[in-house]
Amino acid sequence: MRAAARMLTVRRPLVRPAGGRLLRAMRGWVVRRALVLGAALVALCILRVWQNHQVMRVAYDLSEARRMQLRLEHERRELELELATLRDPRRLGEAARRRLGMTEPARGQVVLLP
After folding, report:
1. CA–CA distance from 111 to each of 31, 64, 102, 104, 108 (Å)?
2. Which of the residues in the chain have pLDDT under 50?
3. In whole angstroms, how far apart are CA 7 and each of 2, 3, 4, 13, 18?
4. N or C, fewer C-beta in 10 Å, the chain?
């Protein structure tokens, strides 16, 4: 009975699988390729997010520039109106009489040069 209780155990396979090194090398190559492709994909995603961020920033800047352009055009129109008012001959004549005491020239005071 004692012989039946003793069994032979094998700690390692008797036959090595063919191409074991090649299989391990291929697994390593596949893992490296997958890591490189994953890293490239992550880099492309980060680049895309950065690009969208830049587009949004430029859009906000463009919107702000357009708002400033409209404000400056409005201010320019107001200044042109004020300039036209200040250059009005009737207003200038009244200001000359009131502030400077000027009067219309008499008949003999105007001399025309040839």
Report:
1. 104, 58, 18, 14, 8
2. none
3. 10, 8, 7, 16, 28
4. C
